[in-house]
Amino acid sequence: MIDIASLKVELESRIAASDTPADILKSKEFRELYASIPTLAVDERKEFGQKVNELKETIARAVAKRQEQLSAKELPAIDITAPFDVNAAMPALLPSDQGTIHPLMNEIETISDIFNRMGFVTEESREIDDQYHMFESLNFPKGHPARDDWDTFMTVETDASGDPLIAPAHTSTMQNRVMRKYHDNLENNQPIAVIVPDRTFRNEDLDARHEHTFYQVEGVYVAKGVHAGMLIATLQAFLEEYYGRQLEVRVNPFYFPFTEPSFEFALSCPFCDKQGCNICSQSGWIELLGCGMIHPNVLKEADIDPTIYTGFAFGCGIDRLVMMKYQIEDIRHLESGKLDFLRQFSA
Ligand code: FA5
């Protein structure tokens, strides 16, 4: 049987010396290891297979680290203070000395303000999180197939249990934290009412509506007797206040592991008046947010008794809200740093 421990040492030293470390993941040693599994006695296969998988994960992390070292060497120096692409033609107007607030930040203030007036407090998320908050606390047990629906960016750093840390793919990573932080509200007959507007990251195929880096606002409301009608009324009130007019919304049943029942909220496409265009993928509607009644397991995980309390949660794409407000035809303008675009929003 191949000695995995000594193979690990050998592969690690080859990675450290290699300029193309990813090749080592495809090396003949791995093929031989996998090929040897069926030749083992049945009772040895499981343990050996697990060891092979662990080796592959360790080696993949070592490869990623080495690739990072190599690319750090190659990167040209970047002037992060440059206000625009230094190689591009000068814009007609130079940026002002003071700069202006990015439109997304302005809109986050407006969104917070509306929810604060409705009794919600605002909390911040984080840009690196652990798998417990991304998955387990949200009722995705280890190995749950729905984990694959979330196109997360993993980092090479690991948490205490050895799992890679991740760039959060949604602001729902904060649900457990805010329910714990405001738990005492319930004993004082006050609801837990929190919003979390912050940055999220996904390994996406980019298009006019999909960015890899975007913003969401999470909402969490827990008290006695909360029901889905309150969720829909809260969202409709927020959206009508934000857009300053009555809106056509569509609520469809959906699936999220952390809410039951779950819904998807869409707004009629303001670009084509529901006729169908590129921006709404010819559907006439733009999907704006996911929401639902907080799953009892998610409440229990935050030490809240689901037989006494119920709650709703929602996660709304802020970029999409803003796109529709200002009729921005491509989401990628928002993170582009293009001054011509940004200047249109400076007061
Ligand atoms: C979620 O992220 C859930 N966390 C929402 C949720 C929260 C459900 C609480 C239940 C309870 P979803 O993947 O559908 O769900 O994303 C929510 C919204 O984020 C989308 O409706 C969309 O407006 C926005 N969004 C998602 N992916 C992107 C992307 N790549 N670019 C821009 N906006 C996006």
Automatic annotation (TrEMBL):
Compartment annotation: Cytoplasm
Catalytic activity: tRNA(Phe) + L-phenylalanine + ATP = L-phenylalanyl-tRNA(Phe) + AMP + diphosphate + H(+)
Keyword Transmembrane helix belongs to the record: no
Keywords for this protein: Aminoacyl-tRNA synthetase, ATP-binding, Cytoplasm, Ligase, Magnesium, Metal-binding, Nucleotide-binding, Protein biosynthesis
InterPro entries: aa-tRNA-synth_II (IPR006195), aa-tRNA-synth_II/BPL/LPL (IPR045864), Phe-tRNA-synth_IIc_asu (IPR004529), Phe-tRNA_ligase_II_N (IPR004188), Phenylalanyl-tRNA_Synthase (IPR002319), tRNA-bd_arm (IPR010978)
Alphabetized PROSITE patterns for the sequence: AA_TRNA_LIGASE_II
Enzyme Commission no: 6.1.1.20
GO cellular component: cytoplasm
Root EC class: ligase
One MF term in the entry's GO annotations: ATP binding
Entry superkingdom: Bacteria
Keyword flag Aminoacyl-tRNA synthetase: yes
Domain Aminoacyl-transfer RNA synthetases class-II family profile: 135-324
GO biological process: phenylalanyl-tRNA aminoacylation
PANTHER family, A to Z: PHENYLALANINE--TRNA LIGASE, MITOCHONDRIAL, PHENYLALANYL-TRNA SYNTHETASE
Entry protein name: phenylalanine--tRNA ligase
Name of the gene encoding the protein in the UniProt record: pheS
